[in-house]
């Protein structure tokens, strides 16, 4: 393969004559100064625009809540505002730009009296169409060539769109895990995992095949690989969107667990699938059984690896907060909590695992263990902090998606492609929801009723994750169409499905609001004797582990969960929190040297005080 | 479940035949994909490194507090960790880089089988040295040239180092305003403004002139303009550093007000000065008196413009929270509070004012008015949120400054320049501290004692703002030296002056810790009969405005402050908060239609309830 590089040799000859004056460097200097000022101004204007929109969004959200207006959902409104702002920036915001683009090929020498802000490099591969790369000026210029590698490192230390998503999505998912109704989530874990692993795979290949059929019929020129890639990234429903649409509804807890559980965990599958599909082309050979085996191993490895990593990091933080006296300084304690939670995301991403799954389970572990060790102040702080941050980030993401439709130009719109996509993703979602539910219902108690199945189909909302995955590589026109279509699917599902969710819930006669809470509590009480009264209000209050009464709750019949409950109560909680019984009591006496080391003074005080407390309680009763 | 997997196997085997088409675009596509993955990985690793260091920093900070270790200050330790990490990245982190640089001039076409990540454009002005511009590949490539302008807009929508500072510094300054001990700040406002306006200007020109003398003697080749610019950016002491060093010390409140007030407000002067100096070169003529006059007007305009803007935005938020029922939804209320506070920074920057001054006074207004309208939950939330965020941001900034020494390569080290700089800035700081204090002491009561003056000289800590200003333009070698020197001055002042502050405070026999608080309260009580008992713990509790007793406090003697107090109690507070007396009571009856509109139901209820409350109080006493 040869490239025909049309290089800027001309410019190299031209430039000196332009800069001929003695104060050539001075003019460059001035230009750089102006450029820095312009960039600063531009950045600030765009940030200000976003922030102002968000103020409007918050006020709108308040008005919606206050006047109980339910037809359009907040996320939908946010998206809509984003679209509006994007439109304004696109058609009225061009005057703001003061930078200059220099096209290497046009050779318009007379215009060059400043270092151009952009260079365009045109390449014509043999047998391919002409492509052009855009280059942006990096701050500063150096006479020394040795510094090039260092320059690259510096560039990586600053923000990029990737980091943008690294910073916005994690707090939302963490908050979901941190405030999760654990009981319902884990009771349905089997069904959730089946939907996540089998369902997402079916949906991916179903979408890919259907789209291949459609695009082949209409000769739209997509390879099967591209469509499979599209299938992979569009198959994952989005936790951010699901949370924002369903959180206020208070639907029946099992249904929410299924829908939210799927959305939170299927990102892992979608990411692995898309990577496997990408790798097809490296060999370009027939796919062997080995590839297939490694794909399955990949699924499992990535998923459970991420899960364990997040959980372990959460536990480490619990251990740290238990064994040190950092609770004396709530500010440091809360900061540590926030930082370590974020690290669980980053470590997973660095290890090639999925940060989303990791940070979700880190959140669960933090709520289950660390929360109980925190000072009262930090308990409130961390809860409110993540609540507020995730709300702001969420609004920002929806707003950003809306803006991107008009502002970015790596989106290429194809309405036929979009139309076929919507058909394909709905069909392939139906293709797994109903058969899989039927299969699961063979053994599952309580069964997944038909109205849940309809709702799961309907709740296939796509969001930030699909948007981020599709936007990561938009190098070819087909990929730009895929990106645009993904954005459109996100907007359609959020506006239409999200907007109609409350209507659909009523139509399917699914309990929600106070009804669902009462129903849930009634069921709880009838099924289990554990203290679940206040659970719906705050799951976090389970600070003192009661020995579980296994066998009464249908979920407890399963072997593994029962084992886990026992292990949790007799080892994990005593090890990681100040809860009693302590390890000294639950482990055999032979471990005493170790267990006494791991028992906190608060635990010991609590054990010693217990009889006295009981007496007091006796008297006051 | 197995049959489902077989289905996908068949599909997988079919796939490659379709994927077989291999062309040039496909390889470019792959390269872009790999590049995206690399960037993501690199970004994540760097973020993870920062976060891990911050965990270590938090744990160290806790250990320092716990074991009462005071010799090295936390900021110093953070800087030190940053330096360490920068060193590791510089000398051991090169292997992480997988991107490729393509040098335009070498024309090594044979090596190009992927789009190069970077282009270097070499330019050699006549009579100047060879300069080279680095260009980074922008995501995506387009056949369509029309899209270039849109591409630029998109580029501006994402993060840059500028935005980095837009996001990190504002919360710290806002938090400073939000938790400011207002009484002491405003009591010293005259002296603070004198130091800010006259002192910073003297320091700027003093440093510039001294440096010009030094560099001329040793023929280092700097223009006077460059050195004046250096003087301007290095003259501003840094609020972030001052806060982090002095906050835990609890030094005498007047001294802290002087030092902190100077650092918070002199950024405006430094920014205006540096802009004025930049503009000198456009004409390259002698500086006329007109230039000088417009500079003074610039000072005043920028400073008071920013002040008024921030204050107004704060008041608007107070009005919004008063007149709506948003307090019913604390999450939305807190989010609105955070967003509007941030907007005060952005609007100022967009208008060409200084965001730092704006956000500081917005914080003061928010604490003075809005805070009283917030729900109890939001009061706690916002306080803790800003406290935590500013702590984290602060640690991050110091860490980043440390890292930058080794990682960035737009810093050119010159130890002789650094040595002369340290002499110049100390000398020119002394040049204004002592004469100005002497002048101020002519009328000021209480006078600024000599030990305060020594301390103000010693507390000339530079920090993030100087670093950001110097890093904004590093286009010439001289500017790179200035950036490196600024970084070094930051490090030296933070490590040496910051580290020795507690020793210096003892040496100068300045009261600190509990002594200062007791002393302050004793003075308060002897001088004023207003209720200042709990003030040192939380200034924010002044929720019900008591009518001031003017004349007893020395500060109240001044005409303007007295007028302001009166205006605040009889108009601003009734207008913007739920405090009584309401506007209906303080304004003449002729305004009744308007005032009744602006009186909240809570105010009215409070007024009606007041007699009853008084009775109750009477009985309980």
Task: Produce the secondary structure layout.
Two copies of one chain form a homodimer.
Chain A: H1 9-18, H2 24-66, H3 74-92, E1 101-103, E2 118-123, E3 131-141, H4 148-157, H5 161-178, H6 182-187, H7 189-217, H8 224-235, H9 239-246, H10 253-283, H11 289-323, H12 330-350, H13 355-373, H14 376-407, H15 415-443, H16 450-458, H17 464-472, H18 477-507, H19 514-527, H20 559-576, H21 583-586, H22 592-598, H23 601-620
Parallel strand pairs in A: 1-2
Antiparallel strand pairs in A: 2-3
Helix pairs in contact in A: 2-3, 2-14, 3-14, 3-18, 5-12, 5-13, 5-14, 7-8, 7-10, 7-15, 8-10, 8-17, 9-10, 9-18, 10-11, 11-12, 11-13, 12-13, 12-14, 14-18, 15-16, 15-18, 17-18
